[in-house]
Amino acid sequence: MTDKTPERIAIPDLKKKLETSRKLVLIDVREPKELEETGLIPGAIHIPIKQLEKRMDKFKKDADLVFY
User: Fold this and answer.
1) Are strands 64-67 and 45-46 parallel, antiparallel or unpaired?
2) What residues contact 31, with CB distance under 8 A and at least 6 apart?
3) Is 20 exposed, middle or buried (0-12, 13-18, 19+ CB in 10 A)?
4) What is the pTM of this model?
């Protein structure tokens, strides 16, 4: 995976990227309890933060990953 500097993205910019990018992957890193309380953004993948490192190889190398 390439080393990219993490950056924040504003909600309107994220919405635009979701509408136009096929490489964008949303990853919800909250714990299951938090997910039950507020739900998951449609199309997002749920990977609790504690499992994230061992599952990162599942994503395409050129994907734009957005964690929340």
Assistant:
1) unpaired
2) 48, 49
3) exposed
4) 0.77
- The 10s digit of each residue's pLDDT in 5-63 is 788 999 899 889 888 888 889 999 999 999 888 888 888 999 999 999 999 988 888 88
Cα angle 56, 43, 32; round to 5: 65
What are 5-19's pLDDT values in tens digits?
788 999 899 889 888
Q: How many CB atoms lie within 10 A of CB 40?
A: 13
- Kindly state the DSSP code that residue 59 receives in the 8-state scheme: S
